């Protein structure tokens, strides 16, 4: 009798729990999935036998419908293995391995007969999962009101976080325990204000964590298509994270139909920080390249009329704010400070040609800048009408004669409907005057009113622009957009994005702290290349404006060089003024030399918030380039060059901080050392506070 009771209980438990395990190819990462006694899907994640995610619920709330959260049974499950090597058009690697084990659970809700599939992919780097909505009998349309996805952490981990602002990622990272997360205590003297914070305990993903046991954990997402961006609500006492989706103007989260899928929710885990920062898991979770002919998608280094506006040397607008009332009336009065003039543009073209750059960006070339910011107007820009002192055809002819391409700039001022109305005409102008790429901007609140940058509508817009640009063989670099989640694999013409606190904040705020660039590779850059605009040599802003004497970069000049290696992008800007480079041509040589497309990348040292050392091999030669950066602490390290070809001899040119360098007091103190090395050699790296080292390793002739 007792034995029969045990059998009955066991059958009862299996009926409701259906616990199933799936391991990664290396067997180090393990997923455990089951249904609890309410028929709710729950999962766990382990790494080398150690709990990473405790039992966490899955499901969604449906507006005016039955929630997809409980009352499920498992109809069947399917497993698969996948192993491929694919070649990105541009990237940190010329070949990327995509290897995982997969399990799909087909669920049916008992009372409603509604179907929901949950798919898990288990990589050596971690676990990814998403919801799939199959056909039920016919096409169904429904509205997601909440996503109930949980990530129950095992302890009070150290977290690297920024507040959950639906409209901006341009924040300094906080490094605290999970229990100490509180947006109400933020110091907002960082150049911007919180725009759409509804909770003191909401943070943005990707969220980088480190446990007391030494595990590095990253919570993020991949392939965000037709769905809002995921933020995370943090329970600071239980350490539970819950998905929080950016709403639209009436509070709905996502409009979907069957069949469809949500983005992948990702949990990366390792006991080695280098494996997190070097992971290609986010890229792998996106669909393969959809562009057949990619010959026109090429990496670029560029200069531009941009930084001079940020430091106050010139203006974006032609008339000046004091003449804003004349804007659009034909009576604009030039102030003499307009940056995008024919003469100034030619100066940048000459500089680019002289030093071997590919392109020149010009901001402020088109009418509308007198009346654009904060006015919530729909039709500020038409993206085709230049100011009187910018002759787009003459500039094109001059650039062509010098072998230089021009990069277009489209600031939308958040007026998305207006941009979409003008998009075809704007692209036609680019093609007419041979502009291969555009930098888009989305400063300000979004129009239509009530939408957020991170909502479903804007996600669709950013992806739509990339697709339309691809159809016209144009590259796009978006600023103030949603942060990338690997979509550049699918549309590699989406060559870069900002979507984080960039170098520009150093020009007109308290700046980015020394640790900032050591955190971004563990967070923002996991989703795709960033247009960080490095290379600022004149680090103190007081030389441009006495009122900014307290503003400066929190890096040394040598660290600005190293950022070209540590902050990956196939579109890199030499962001400073030409005259500042002319004063340091020996250091400028590294920017001229360093490639922006790679065949191999090796992360040699990594600790979020502290330091990063990476070495990369040029895709088109046998040369290597190394970048090492540190936080506010000076650092010494020794790097073995065993990644070099054992049959070759190299010339190492080391751009390093001088002994007396310091980001605050002596940022421009650097020295350049040249030596012959082989794969048996070591290089000693001595980095100042806020410093770095850049090294070129070229085959010896």
Task: Explain what this protein looks like in three dimensions.
There is one protein chain. With 701 residues, the protein is an alpha+beta fold. The chain folds into two domains: 20-284, Beta-galactosidase, Chain A, domain 5 (Distorted Sandwich), CATH 2.70.98.10; 300-596, Aldolase class I (TIM Barrel), CATH 3.20.20.70. Helix content is 17%, strand content 32%. It is built from 13 helices and 36 strands. Strands 6, 7, 8, 9, 12, 13, 15, 16, 20 and 21 form a ten-stranded antiparallel β-sheet that branches. The protein has an eight-stranded antiparallel β-sheet with strand order 1-2-3-4-11-18-17-14, with no helix packed on it. Strand 8 and strand 9 form a beta hairpin. Helix 7 runs parallel beside helix 8 (456-471). The longest helix is centred in the middle third of the chain and has 17 residues, at 416-432. The termini are far apart.
End-to-end Cα distance, whole Å, is 86 Å
**Shape by Cα distribution:** globular
Structural class: alpha+beta
| Named CATH topology of the largest domain | TIM Barrel
Q: Biggest β-sheet, characterized?
A: 10 strands, antiparallel
Helix content: 10-25%
Q: Beta fraction of the residues?
A: 25-35%
Could you name the CATH homologous superfamily of the largest domain?
A: Aldolase class I
Low-confidence stretches: 1-17, 189-194, 322-329
Briefly, what is this?
This protein has 701 residues and is α+β, with helices and mostly antiparallel strands. The chain is 17% helix and 32% strand. Strands 6, 7, 8, 9, 12, 13, 15, 16, 20 and 21 form a 10-stranded antiparallel sheet that branches. Strands 1-2-3-4-11-18-17-14 form an 8-stranded antiparallel sheet, with no helix packed on it.
């Amino acid at each position: 009798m007792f034995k029969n009771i045990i059998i009955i209980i066991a059958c009862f438990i299996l009926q409701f729990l259906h616990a199933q395990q799936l391991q990664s190819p290396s067997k180090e990462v393990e997923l455990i999935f089951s249904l609890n006694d309410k028929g709710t899907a729950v999962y766990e994640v382990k790494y080398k036998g150690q709990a990473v995610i405790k039992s966490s619920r899955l499901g969604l709330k449906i507006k005016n419908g039955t929630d997809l959260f409980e009352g499920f049974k498992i109809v069947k499950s399917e497993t698969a293995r996948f192993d491929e090597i694919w070649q990105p058009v541009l990237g940190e690697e010329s070949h990327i391995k995509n290897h995982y084990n997969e399990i799909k659970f087909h669920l049916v809700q008992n009372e409603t007969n509604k179907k929901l599939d949950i798919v898990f992919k288990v990589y050596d780097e971690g676990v990814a999962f998403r919801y799939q909505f199959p056909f039920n009998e016919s096409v169904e349309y429904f509205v997601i009101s909440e996503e109930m996805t949980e990530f129950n952490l095992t302890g009070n981990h150290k977290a690297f976080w920024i507040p959950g602002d639906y409209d901006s990622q341009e924040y300094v990272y906080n490094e605290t325990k999970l229990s100490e997360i509180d947006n109400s205590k933020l110091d907002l003297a960082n150049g911007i204000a919180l725009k759409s914070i509804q909770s003191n305990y909401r943070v943005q993903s990707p969220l980088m964590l480190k446990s007391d046991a030494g595990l590095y954990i990253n919570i993020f997402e991949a392939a965000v298509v037709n769905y809002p961006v995921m933020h995370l609500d943090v329970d600071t006492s239980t350490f539970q994270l819950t998905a929080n989706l950016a709403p639209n103007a009436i509070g709905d989260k996502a409009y979907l139909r069957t069949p469809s899928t949500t983005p992948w929710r990702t949990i990366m885990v390792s006991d080695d920080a280098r494996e997190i920062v070097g992971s290609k898991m986010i890229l792998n979770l996106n669909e393969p390249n959809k562009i057949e002919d990619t010959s026109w998608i090429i990496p670029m280094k560029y200069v531009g009329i941009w930084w001079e506006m940020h430091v106050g040397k010139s203006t974006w607008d032609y008339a000046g704010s004091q003449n804003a009332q004349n804007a659009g009336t034909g009576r604009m009065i030039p102030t003499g400070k307009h940056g995008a003039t024919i003469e100034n543009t030619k100066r940048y073209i000459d500089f680019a040609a002289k030093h071997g750059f590919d392109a020149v960006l010009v901001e402020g070339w088109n009418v509308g800048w007198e009346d654009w910011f904060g006015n919530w107007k729909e039709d500020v820009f038409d993206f085709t009408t230049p100011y009187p002192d910018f002759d787009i055809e003459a500039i094109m002819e001059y650039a062509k004669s010098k072998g230089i391409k021009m990069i277009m700039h489209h600031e939308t001022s958040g007026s998305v409907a207006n941009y979409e109305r003008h998009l075809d005409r704007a692209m036609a102008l680019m093609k007419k005057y041979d502009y291969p790429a555009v930098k888009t901007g989305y400063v300000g609140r979004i129009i239509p009113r009530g939408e957020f940058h991170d909502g479903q509508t804007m996600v669709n817009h950013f992806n739509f622009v990339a697709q339309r640009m691809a159809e016209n063989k144009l590259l796009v670099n978006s600023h103030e957009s949603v942060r990338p989640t690997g979509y550049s694999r699918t549309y590699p013409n989406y060559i870069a994005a900002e979507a984080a606190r960039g170098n520009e904040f150093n020009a007109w705020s308290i700046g980015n702290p020394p640790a900032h660039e050591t955190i971004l590779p563990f967070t923002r850059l996991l989703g795709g290349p960033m247009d960080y605009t490095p290379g600022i040599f004149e680090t103190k802003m007081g030389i441009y404006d006495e009122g900014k004497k307290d503003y400066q970069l929190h890096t040394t000049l040598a660290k600005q060089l190293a950022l070209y290696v540590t902050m990956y992008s196939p579109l890199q800007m030499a962001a400073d003024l030409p005259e500042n480079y002319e004063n340091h041509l020996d250091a400028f040589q590294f920017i001229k030399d360093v490639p922006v497309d790679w065949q191999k990348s090796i992360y040699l040292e990594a600790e979020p918030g502290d330091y990063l050392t990476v070495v990369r091999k040029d895709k088109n030669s046998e040369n290597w380039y190394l970048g090492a950066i540190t936080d506010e602490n000076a650092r010494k390290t020794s790097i073995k060059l065993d990644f070099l070809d054992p049959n070759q001899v190299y010339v190492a040119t080391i751009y390093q901080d001088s002994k007396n360098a310091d980001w605050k007091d002596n940022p421009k103190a650097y020295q350049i050392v040249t030596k012959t090395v082989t794969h048996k050699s070591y290089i000693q790296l001595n980095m100042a506070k806020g410093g770095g080292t850049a090294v070129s390793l070229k085959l010896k002739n």
